[in-house]
Specification:
The protein is an alpha+beta fold. The chain has two domains: 33-188, Glutaredoxin (3-Layer(aba) Sandwich), CATH 3.40.30.10; 193-237, no CATH class. Helices cover 27% and strands 24% of the residues. It is built from seven helices and 13 strands. It has a five-stranded mixed sheet with strand order 7-6-5-8-9. The longest helix is centred in the last third of the chain and has 16 residues, at 177-192.
């Protein structure tokens, strides 16, 4: 039996097998990051010097976010907004770190504009990913959009260096950082309790008891404030850490 992807030709009394070319995956650029994947480690220059990512992250949550280019209007507002949110990041044991494919020199010049126009001091690093090393590790360049710049990617990474949430925005849409904090709050809550957060949940709202929890005795122990059973699989309870 012939091998797959081959063409059979008969030349006189000789049977020839012509094999089709085989495409070998480019392992260097084969990015398969999923929720639960370990966030790739890297060393890259930044506005605060070389960043050894996992070491820099330490025991904090991390919000790694890319922007298309320096000296662009939407990015200027985003980086200023993140700087103003420093107390919120501290409250959530989280660190922000930005990235674009421009140089450190370009970043430092642009930081002056950000601080001037947004009325704040930049208080976190911007990775200078001119060689696209980090962008390729995290699949931040989408050639169908523009092969030379990164899209607005967001990676929420926990203290165990696991990717917990990803967002991808087009270059034309600025990010909603309130939603990013809402997701971090949900992750931190659900990591510690047998609950999930429903649609449009905000910190302090009712939460959902996970369907896998069925033993009434355990439920009473875990949820002393009680719960409301809407359906056997839909049980609402006050947020347990409030």
């Amino acid at each position: 039996m012939g091998a797959p992807d081959q063409e059979v030709r008969v030349v006189g009394s000789v049977v020839c097998y012509v094999l089709s070319p085989v495409t070998v995956p480019d392992k260097e650029h084969d990015v398969s990051l999923h929720l639960g994947s370990t966030a790739p480690d890297f060393t890259q220059d930044s506005t605060e010097g070389p960043i050894h990512f996992h070491e820099w992250a330490g025991n904090s949550w991390v919000v790694l976010f890319s922007h298309p280019a320096d000296y662009t209007p939407v990015c200027t507002t985003e980086l200023g907004a993140v700087a103003k949110l420093a107390p919120e990041f501290k409250k959530h044991n989280a660190k922000p770190i930005a990235l674009s494919v421009d140089s450190v020199e370009s970043h430092r010049g642009w930081v002056k504009d950000i601080e001037e126009t947004q009325g704040t001091k930049l208080n976190y690093p911007i990775l200078a990913d001119a060689d696209q090393k980090v962008a390729k590790l995290y699949d931040m360049v989408h050639p169908e959009t523009d092969a030379k710049i990164t899209v607005r990617s967001v990676f929420i990474i926990d203290p165990k260096k696991k990717i917990r949430t990803t967002f991808t925005y087009p270059p034309s849409a600025g990010r909603n950082f309130a939603e990013i904090f809402r997701v971090i709050e949900s992750l931190q809550l659900t990591d510690g309790y047998s609950v999930a957060t429903p649609a449009d949940w905000k910190d302090g709202d009712q939460v959902v008891i996970v369907p896998s929890l069925k033993d009434p005795a355990i439920m009473k122990e875990k949820f002393p404030k009680g719960w409301t059973e809407v359906k056997p699989y839909l049980r609402l309870t006050p947020q347990p850490n409030k």
